[in-house]
Amino acid sequence: MPKFSIFTPLGHLKLSSAKPLGKQFFEVGKATLGSVAYKIERGSRVYAWLYAWSMSLATLQMRAKRAGLQWHPAHVYEYLAEHERDRGVIPRAGQSIPERRAELVWRRRVLPPPTRANVENTLRERLGDAFLAFVSTSKADVVNWPENLGDSPMLLARPTLPRALAKTIAPIASPGALQFVAYERHSEGVAWELRARDVVVLEPEVPDRVERVTVVSTTTGDAGYSIQILPTKAHPPGATIARHPLPIWSGTKRHSLVILDADGAEDPEARRRAHEVLERLMRATSTWNIAGANEGGETAGPFKVGVGKLGVTPIGEFEL
After folding, report:
1. Which of 102, 238, 314, 320 could cysteine-pair with 301, CB 3.0–4.6 Å?
2. Which of 126, 112, 141 is nearest to 254 (CA)?
3. Are 205 and 142 within 8 A, CB to CB?
């Protein structure tokens, strides 16, 4: 247990039975001066000078040690907020200093390569018993859009293709028929005139209606500009007509499902930690969802109207 004395003022007292640092310096100084040449008694001038000297050295050493620990996430105090800001950590309301330090230690860790075992172990470390399973997409279940490389609406072209951006004036209401579509400038200062045999993309801003078409012919005159195309989908007025490369190709090959227990799947903190682990571990092309298990923790899903929970219950059924 610590002992109270003149060598343990505020800032020097520690919960330890070790001799205070100031007293250690004092005893070294006293032994160096010697009791023959100097009268070192409490109340004397030499005693006061030696005490002030030893306490100043002890304070200096303690502050230097404390300052040196400010870089360490497990010991930082004064610069804790700065470290959190540098690492993108937002402390939660009511979070204690040890909890904030533990979060900072985690953020500064160098994570292992994203193998399946490493992902599962890291999720289990961060989430504990709330983590149940990490389900990746099997080859048989992979869905690509568009289905094959080069299919519509993908537009594979050289980067040097002259860009043009226009928009429709009237709606395209008769898909499947060759027709003339009136168009106009999309934005000021942007090239917009189209030519015959141009390959363009219609309405790339809406995934459900985007398609690639070829301009059969064009007309110009007082009535305006129009292109003859064979659309396969309906489009509203103001739909974008783009002549530029569109190498869009997405799929579920790298999609995964993180299944938590029923409580963890609805806990914002557990979901935040799961997302954080995957954001740091997974590759840029990876996607994922967080789902909750059914009662008993042996299965998850399927989603049923009136029973399933949006953002929690998976569409399909999984055995864990």
Report:
1. 314
2. 141
3. no
Same domain, 212 and 296: no
Please tell me whether residues 171 and 241 are part of one structural domain: yes
- The token pair that represents 268 in the structure block: 């914002």
Which residue pairs from 111-116 have beta carbons closer than 8 angstroms and sit at least 24 positions apart in sequence? 111/280, 111/281, 114/281, 114/282, 114/283
Ranges of beta strands (E only) in the chain are 131-136, 144-145, 164-168, 179-185, 199-202, 211-214, 217-219, 225-229, 240-243, 250-251, 255-260, 287-292, 299-300, 318-319
Asked whether residue 12 is domain-assigned, the answer is no
Strand 255-260 with 287-292, pairing: parallel
Q: What does the pLDDT look like over 120-164, one tens digit per residue? A: 999 999 999 999 999 999 999 999 999 999 999 999 999 999 999
For the chain, the maximum distance between any two Cα atoms, rounded to a whole number of angstroms, is 117
Separation of alpha carbons 205 and 211, rounded Å? 11
Residue 258 is part of which domain span? 116-141+252-319
Do residue 265 and residue 313 come from a single domain? Answer: yes
